[in-house]
Design goal:
Blueprint (H helix, E strand, L loop, with lengths): L1 H20 L10 E9 L7 E9 L8 E9 L4 E8 L2 E4 L2 E13 L10 E12 L5 E10 L10 E11 L18
């Protein structure tokens, strides 16, 4: 009987899995290019400015897709990462995007995070506008996952502007009035 009680929650979750994967709560998205800017070391006394560029392909597998990010700060430090994300539709044009990734960090003369490999966990809340554009607020945590003796980690807070890759190449729809046949 005890074994049955342990298996029952798992059976429920597995049985519900197809319904979850077919949910309209996951937003479909074209390939996006995103520009971000903000501050690192949000909870510390000394904040540092950063900016980033991110590419989000349209490819999705069970609603999860890849992202590729490059960011830098005022002291020439840089971070290049790849990871996975999911766009969750909240309704009325709002999209929540949790993500996780790993990458290479070079401190240069800037913020020392203790190791070259850094893991990034983030969540973005964005408002979707016409033609697929988004304006969002993103909170992220970077950490080396205790791969070294020193693991200060940091949090970032920034704004992002995303737009579909073909945004500038789309033709305006033809709204001319058809001629009447006489």
């Amino acid at each position: 009987m005890r074994r049955l009680r342990q298996l029952l929650p798992w059976a429920f979750l597995l049985g519900a899995a197809p319904a979850v994967s077919a949910s309209p709560r996951f937003a479909e998205s074209p390939p996006l290019l995103s520009f971000g800017a903000g501050v690192a070391q949000v909870f510390d006394n000394h904040q540092e400015f950063f900016w980033s560029v991110e590419y989000r392909p349209a490819f999705r597998f069970f609603h999860v897709g890849p992202y590729f990010l490059f960011g830098t700060g005022k002291n020439d430090e840089f971070y290049a990462a790849a990871g996975v994300l999911a766009d969750v539709e909240l309704g009325r044009g709002w999209v929540l995007t949790p993500s996780f990734g790993a990458g290479y960090y070079n401190a240069s003369d800037g913020l020392d995070l203790g190791f070259d490999t850094q893991f990034r966990t983030a969540v973005e809340l964005a408002r979707r506008f016409g033609r697929g554009q988004r304006l969002g607020l993103c909170f992220a945590h970077l950490s080396n996952g205790s791969l070294s003796d020193t693991n200060p980690g940091t949090e970032t807070l920034g704004i992002s502007y995303s737009f579909p890759i073909d945004f500038f190449f789309r033709r305006a729809p033809d709204i001319s009035v058809p001629e009447r046949a006489e």
